């Protein structure tokens, strides 16, 4: 455990950032699930709209430093090639 005041503050900041990053990643996962569900149900209009929204979220995660660029590109590639099973 930290003894210095500034180190204690940094721990609080890191905890807050970690929670924000987790919530953002959860939001992305939710959109991915919605997209896959729309594709599976044959809702093409809704699926294309969800795909663009998901891509936008993933790109903003990269710009915020939440996700690495290669990870984002892999996720987008897998989503764009997703077909109903």
**Structural class from helices and strands?**
mainly alpha
**Topology, number of strands:** 0
Rough outline: elongated
Tally of alpha and pi helices: 3
Q: In angstroms, what is the radius of gyration? A: 17 Å
Share of helical residues: over 70%
Indicate the mean pLDDT: 95
Residue runs with pLDDT of under 50 for 5 or more positions: none
What is the CA–CA distance across the termini? 50 Å
% residues in beta strands: under 5%
Describe the structure.
The protein has 85 residues and is mainly α. Helices cover 81% and strands 0% of the residues. The chain has three helices and no strands. It has helices spanning 5-40, 44-64, 69-80. It is elongated and about 55 Å long. The termini are far apart. The relative contact order is 0.12. The model has no long low-confidence stretch (mean pLDDT 95).
Concise summary:
The chain has helices at 5-40, 44-64, 69-80. It is 81% helix and 0% strand.
Key traits:
85 residues, 0% strand
Task: Describe the protein's topology.
Blueprint: H1 5-40, H2 44-64, H3 69-80
Helix pairs in contact: 1-2, 2-3
